[in-house]
Design brief:
Length: about 230
Amino acid sequence: MIYLDNAATSFPKPPGVAQAVYDHITQLGVSSSRGSYRAAIEVSRIAFDCREKLAEIFNISDSSRLAFTINATAGINTILKGYLKKNSRVITTSMEHNAVMRPLNYLIKERGISVIKAGASPKEGYLDFEDFQKKIPGADLAVINHASNVSGAIQDIMKIGKICRREKIPLMLDAAQTAGIYPIDVEKMNISFMAFSGHKGLMGPTGCGGFYVDPDIKIDPLIHGGTGSNSE
Ligand SMILES: Cc1ncc(COP(=O)(O)O)c(C=O)c1O
């Protein structure tokens, strides 16, 4: 098969990924962080190690601020719906994926948030910094697509992060297309929130992704549940 849909999910995965999934299902295969027997502790340790490795790749100082999800879309929804309040103001771009635009459109209707879009160059899709700079004051959150799956344009997040730092506006990065492929430094780029796919550039199996939230920011959970008395 000649595969041309790598922006949707990477294929084939490295043989070690298939082996790790097989080993997990046949040798451990129990829930993480929900038991104190040997296999449960081992699975929890593997999940912890994975979080630590991701924290290293993205230069995140506290790996406990990373959570796993089923994909980037779930991470984006958790961040936007957990952070934006009634009448919040968002600055974003004309280059966003539906995984960002649909939750934002939902929040316009349900919470009365306002969304303004900074433009991009018509051919390549690079952010118009002047327009971004002009429209950012007063925003509660900036939401930026790191790389477009349509045009392939990779935005200058270092520059965007500097503008957000100066304006004291938290930056959310949609790193679906770049995590595992393109360098991301959460500290240097001043990223407060980030959602990423695990099943694209990070080469994980389908159905995995995650998100990051800055230690000083609290968001409301999208999904409630879990086990134990203090596991939210
Ligand atoms: C820029 C961008 N954001 C978000 C997504 C959604 O990613 P996922 O499939 O992991 O939910 C994609 C997928 O194509 C994407 O290209």
